[in-house]
Design goal:
Blueprint (H helix, E strand, L loop, with lengths): L1 H21 L15 H13 L2 H17 L3 H21 L1 H22 L2 H12 L3 H14 L4 H18 L4 H10 L2 H6 L4 H13 L9 H8 L4 H16 L1 E2 L2 H11 L19 H4 L21 H21 L5 H6 L3 H22 L5 H35 L1 H9 L8 H16 L2 H19 L11 H21 L4 H10 L3 H28 L4 H19 L1 E2 L7
Antiparallel strand pairs: 1-2
């Protein structure tokens, strides 16, 4: 099976490069061409075929650099070096990207410390008193994701790393945890009234309406769009449905069955999906490194939950405080809307690490050298994700240069009826985010185009028809919803990468198991929410019908994987 997949992958790769060469004649135009979709398409296809995301991203990046060079034979060789000396350097020179890398590394270090000082095990033991079965473990993970509503990066890294030992113990698959983490991160932050997303979204809307008279303020427009955010809302509801019922289908059901069938370890911890068997210096002292493969802590260390909870709380509080400090305005919403989220994340991860190390050393759980070793081990565990992030950002540079989003818009947005504008906006945003791996980048590209387009289509002028404003609100909302959906489906999305990393799940397996759920919820959101809303059906009708439909599909096709301890 593997050899056949590799042969098929090689054939597809050769075919794609041949197609690029054949399409080279259109490469000289200043307008974006079909060539612009090849780099992300190559990355996505090869990632699924070979189940190796790093080579897939690099292949997509290389093909993009070759297209930019003019598709010459000489350019094929020189473009290989452009991937590293131009696009990778440009991506890593971006201050925001560097902030995300430092934040991820520092949070990884903090998690390494609290995993090795007994704190994480203490949290697991506390939660385990309530989460005594798989259902409660999944619901606990989902509700923790809902609680950390103000930032998707913080949400992903905290929930994934905190809940992983418990879900392992109760035989919830790493794929399921990654799905729960991913689906309660961006969907929650994107529609929260107080989050780092809101300032970005409102800023884009404000820029888009700059030359339009007759519309409300950008923030009021944003509030009006929330009711039409069918995909984020239904994605959250579907997570809760799956967690409550214990039912799954498709690749996720098989992953859950593998987790249930896996043999117990000596301390009843499941770590069947980890591939790291190396013994670290801490493990030789009887303190296994949970992030590199073993989620158990030496019995010589007390399992005090406070040693994990306090650093995590410091991170959460510092992020929120940092947003207030760096923001400006009279109301909390205005302050958060202008805040520097990256500075807040950096401050939070640094203070969290300091508190974690201080607690560990003061209580003599580890000496300073051992605590620092644990911190470095935690940072090491994040390294593969950092490589993937760097490659995905580099690929985003290529797609921006090739104007992939512009090509998709030109392809799909001709002769557009007003009623289907929101649906088409969702599809374009989803495809753009799928190809670029960036929901924020997708919103930045599409918002300035969609808002004036929607305003013109409804015949806005200075006196818009009130009944048609729903189309404008829905179209704006679909930029966000489609971007989040594309992020969930894309193997090159940073939030998807971070979700698999924090959950200790193979990245391609996370995307493969999550994809059917994202496709289902996306289809229901479009067909039962977005499309009817375009024809004047109230948003709450679409939302209610969509939720009932998802419940019915889950009951009809979903199956429980539990055996002895089924719930």
């Amino acid at each position: 099976m593997v050899s056949k997949r590799k042969m098929l992958g090689a054939l597809v790769t050769v075919s794609i490069f041949s197609s690029i060469a054949l399409a080279a004649d259109g490469g000289g135009s200043s307008d974006p061409t079909i060539l612009s979709i090849f780099p992300p398409a190559i990355a996505i296809i090869t990632a699924f075929l070979f189940r190796q995301v790093i080579p897939a991203l690099f292949l997509g990046l290389w093909s993009g650099a070759w297209i930019v060079s003019g598709l010459t034979l000489e350019g094929l060789g020189s473009s290989l070096f452009r991937t590293i000396d131009t696009y990778a350097v440009t991506a890593l020179a971006d201050a925001d990207h560097v902030a995300i890398i430092i934040f991820s590394l520092t949070i990884g270090g903090m998690v390494g410390v609290i995993s090795n000082n007994g704190g994480m095990l203490g949290v697991v033991e506390k939660v385990a008193r309530w989460a005594t079965n798989r259902r409660k473990a999944q619901l606990g993970s989902a509700f923790m994701g809902l609680a950390i509503f103000f930032d998707d990066y913080t949400n992903t890294l905290v929930v994934g790393n905190t809940m992983r030992p418990l879900t392992d113990r109760l035989k919830v698959s790493r794929e399921k945890l990654a799905y729960i983490v991913d689906s309660t991160a961006a969907p929650v932050a994107s529609i929260s009234l107080i989050s780092v997303w809101i300032g970005y979204e409102v800023g884009l809307i404000d820029q888009a309406i700059e030359n339009i008279s007759g519309l409300e303020s950008a923030y009021l427009i944003f509030l009006n769009t929330l009711a039409y955010s069918f995909y984020p809302i239904l994605a959250i509801l579907f997570v809760l449905m799956i967690s409550f019922t214990g039912r799954d289908f498709g690749p996720m059901l098989r992953a859950e069955q593998r987790a249930v069938d896996a043999p117990d370890t000596a301390d009843d911890m499941l770590d069947s999906l980890s591939d790291a068997d190396d013994v670290t210096p801490l493990e030789r002292k009887g303190i296994p490194d949970s992030l590199s493969g073993s989620d158990t802590v030496s019995m010589e260390l007390p399992s005090r939950a406070i040693n994990a909870v306090l650093p995590i709380l410091v991170v959460i509080v510092t992020v929120f405080a940092g947003l207030i400090i760096t923001g400006e305005g009279e109301t909390i919403r205005e302050i958060l809307g202008t805040a520097d989220s990256y500075k807040s994340l950096l401050w939070a991860s640094l203070l969290g690490s300091i508190v974690a190390v201080a607690l560990t050393v003061v209580q003599r759980l580890l000496n300073l050298e051992e605590a620092f070793d644990a911190w470095l081990e935690g940072m090491t565990s994040v390294a593969p994700a950092i490589v993937i992030l760097a490659l995905s950002w580099s690929l985003a540079e290529i797609t921006s240069e090739l104007r992939t989003a512009d090509y998709l818009i030109a392809l799909l947005a001709e002769d557009l009826p007003m009623e289907v504008l929101p649906m088409l906006t969702f599809i374009i945003a989803g495809l753009t985010a799928l190809g670029t791996g960036s929901s924020w980048g997708t919103m930045a590209v599409l918002m300035p185009l969609v808002v004036p387009l929607a305003w013109a289509i409804i015949g806005g002028g200075d006196a818009p028809h009130p009944e048609n404003m729903a189309v404008v609100y829905s179209a704006i909302s679909c930029v966000l919803a489609g971007a989040v959906w594309g992020d969930h489906c894309s193997p090159i999305s940073d939030t998807t990468i971070l979700s698999s990393m924090a959950s200790g799940c193979n990245h391609v397996e996370h995307v493969r198991t999550q994809l059917p759920y994202a496709l289902l919820v996306g289809a229901v959101a479009i067909l039962l929410g977005t499309l009817p809303a375009g024809f004047g059906i109230p948003w709450y009708v679409g939302l209610g019908v969509g939720a009932v439909t998802l419940w019915g599909i889950l009951m009809l096709f979903g199956r429980r994987s539990m055996k002895k301890n089924a719930v």
